């Protein structure tokens, strides 16, 4: 079209005259020429040629440097395998840690008795391990918890093992070692992510301070009780169902030990009102009974005496340790709302609480 246009322009110069049809065609072709399609095509072709040229040069470089290319590809493959291997190893470690932790828990929940007299054909078999004494059971569980914490450091199972280890160390009155365990758990990533683990560690530290106070007099005793009260107030702010009520009960016990009976009674009355209300908190049966009994002991007029035959009342049956533990386990199953109610091994066991 451009060639024809140029030819026509030459004719225009010669003839100095154009017809109407020829002039219209000339204008239309001039517009086509103004869009410059040839320029765009040339630009695209040039870019394509540049890309092809670079690709050919890259191919030539790769052929000349096969060793470098192989090394880069190999390094990438090794890195990918390394990531996969580390992930697999980490998951395997966590699984194995959980298995070992369950063995330690099994020992802690084991039976005490004579293994030779346990085989009764008329009774179903109890799969729990059996130990001759409480001390044997405690030592077996402690060793397994310590092994998990040492062998699988950094895993959630190791942190939970340290929490249980601290609880057993408190039973052994090894206060310093127990505090180290609870401090480690409190500052762990798991405690920052799980409010219940954080609360259990705080509770353990409060128990440790109470044990310190038992062996001290004067200012040393006062300081230890003050520290325990401070920790229990921190526990009260833990966002787990039941921890606020549990912390109130612990604080009342500390106030009683400090001789501040009016404040202890006031706090126990508030706790009674909270626990007696229908709802989630009403599931804490054992804590309710323990708090009410403490309130009756400090202020007999605060609550009516228990009816004869009622739990804790005249003629009532005294619950065994096993029955109390079953009640606490049932409280855990009934937990709802923000979290589970307290009742783990690091929590207040019946033997830990005052009569």
Rg calculated over all Cα atoms:
40 Å
Oligomer: single chain
Largest sheet: 2 strands, parallel
Helicity range: 55-70%
Strand order of the largest sheet: 1-2
In words, what does this structure look like?
By secondary structure, this protein is mainly α. The protein has 14 helices and two strands. The protein has helices at 2-15, 20-34, 37-64, 66-108, 134-151, 156-171, 175-186, 189-193, 195-214, 218-236, 243-257, 261-276, 285-298, 321-333; strands at residues 111-112, 130-131. The termini are far apart. The longest helix has 43 residues, at 66-108. It is elongated, with a radius of gyration of 40 Å.
Short summary of the structure?
This protein has helices at residues 2-15, 20-34, 37-64, 66-108, 134-151, 156-171, 175-186, 189-193, 195-214, 218-236, 243-257, 261-276, 285-298, 321-333; strands at 111-112, 130-131.
């Amino acid at each position: 079209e451009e060639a024809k246009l140029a030819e026509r322009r030459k004719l225009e110069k010669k003839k100095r005259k154009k017809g109407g049809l020829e002039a219209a065609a000339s204008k239309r072709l001039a517009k086509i020429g103004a869009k410059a399609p040839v320029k765009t095509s040339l630009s695209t072709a040039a870019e394509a040629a540049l890309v092809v040229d670079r690709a050919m040069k890259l191919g030539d470089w790769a052929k000349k440097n096969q060793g470098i290319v192989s090394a880069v590809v190999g390094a990438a493959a090794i890195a990918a395998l390394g990531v996969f291997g580390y992930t697999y190893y980490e998951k395997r470690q966590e699984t194995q840690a959980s298995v070992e932790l369950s063995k330690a828990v099994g020992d802690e929940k084991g039976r005490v008795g004579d293994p030779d007299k346990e085989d009764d054909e008329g009774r179903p078999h109890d799969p729990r391990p059996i130990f001759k004494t409480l001390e044997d059971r405690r030592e077996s569980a402690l060793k397994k918890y310590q092994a998990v914490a040492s062998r699988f450091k950094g895993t959630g199972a190791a942190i939970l093992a340290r929490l249980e280890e601290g609880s057993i160390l408190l039973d052994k009155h090894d206060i310093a070692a127990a505090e180290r365990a609870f401090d480690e758990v409190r500052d762990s990533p798991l405690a920052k992510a799980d409010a219940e683990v954080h609360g259990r560690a705080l509770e353990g530290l409060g128990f440790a301070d109470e044990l310190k106070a038992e062996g001290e007099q004067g200012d040393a005793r006062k300081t230890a009780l003050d520290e325990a009260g401070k920790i229990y107030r921190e526990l009260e702010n833990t966002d787990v169902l039941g921890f606020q009520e549990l912390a109130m009960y612990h604080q009342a016990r500390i106030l009683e030990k400090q001789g501040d009976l009016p404040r202890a009674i006031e706090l126990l009355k508030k706790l009674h009102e909270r626990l007696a209300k229908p709802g989630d908190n009403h599931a804490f049966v054992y804590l309710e009974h323990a708090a009410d009994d403490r309130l009756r002991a400090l202020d007999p007029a605060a609550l009516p005496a228990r009816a004869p035959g009622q739990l804790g009342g005249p003629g009532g049956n005294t619950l065994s340790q096993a029955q109390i533990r079953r009640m606490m386990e049932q409280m855990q199953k009934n937990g709802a709302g923000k979290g589970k109610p307290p009742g783990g091994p690091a929590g207040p066991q019946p033997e830990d609480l005052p009569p």
